[in-house]
Structures are given as structure tokens and as C-alpha cells.
Amino acid sequence: MREEVGLDITITGFLGIWMDVYSDRPGAAGERPVESTLNICYIARATHPHHLEIDPSEVSEARYFQSWELPDTLAFPDHIGPVIEAWKSAAADNASLVVEPNTAD
Questions:
Q1: Phi-psi category of 29—alpha, beta or left, where left has phi over 0 and alpha has psi -120 to 50?
Q2: What whole-number distance in Å separates Cα of residue 8 and Cα of residue 97?
Q3: Is 102 within a domain?
Q4: Tell me: the pLDDT tens digits for 61-84?
Q5: How many domains, in total, are found in the chain?
Q6: Residue 18 in contact with residue 72, Cβ under 8 Å?
Q7: pLDDT for the residue 103
Q8: Which site in 15, 25, 78, 97 is 20 to 30 Å from 40, CA atoms measured?
């Protein structure tokens, strides 16, 4: 999180592991080969949630949302759906996995 938005975090739980692939558009000039990625996802708490330092080469925008407020369009559309569903399921099964930002900082 520090690289993308400047947040220091404390990991509070493990969510899961997902595989994904990335590539340029088919037929695009200079098309790069398909790359497989292993995505390891955790539940975490931001230690200073109001201290965002967005790196524009990494992220165009960063905000907090409640689970029911998530926008329809998120980054990494090919694999974010299953991750969000796992997070919602984990939250329903064990409320201690959902960690709201500490707004006192």
C-alpha cells in the first residue's frame, strides 16, 4: 500500500490467493506476451488512514468505501470480482475480519 498510496498498514487477516493474466489488447502494436500473476490478498488496517500520498504513475484515484458503496468499475476487472465477493463473505462469517479505518488519526 505504501508504494501506491503512501499508506502504512497492519495486516489483520488473510483473504485468499487468486491467479490472473495480463496482456495488451490482441493485435496491438508492440503487444507484450501474456503474463500470469499470483495475487495474495490480505485484510489490513491503515495506521494513518488520512495520510494518502498518491503516486500518479501507480494510481489515478484512491478513496475509502463501505462494502455496499463500491463503484461498479474497479481496477483489475478480470479478477477483482472474486476478491470482493470473498471479502464480503469473510465479513459476513467473521465480523472481526472487517477493519474500518481509525479516523482518530
A1: beta
A2: 18
A3: no
A4: 888 887 788 888 887 777 788 999
A5: 1
A6: no
A7: 47
A8: 25
C-alpha cell at 23: 496482456
Residues 31, 29: Cα–Cα separation, whole Å:
5
Burial class (CB in 10 A: 0-12, 13-18, 19+), 40: exposed
Residue 13: inside a domain, yes or no? Answer: yes
82 within some domain: yes
Give the pTM.
0.67
* 57-61 CB contacts, 8 Å cutoff, 24+ apart: 58/3, 58/4, 58/5, 59/4, 59/5
| pLDDT at position 40 | 92
The whole-angstrom separation of Cα 81 and Cα 77 is 7
Retrieve residue 102's grid coordinates: 481509525
> Would residue 103 count as lying in a domain?
no
* Domain ranges, residue 83: 2-97
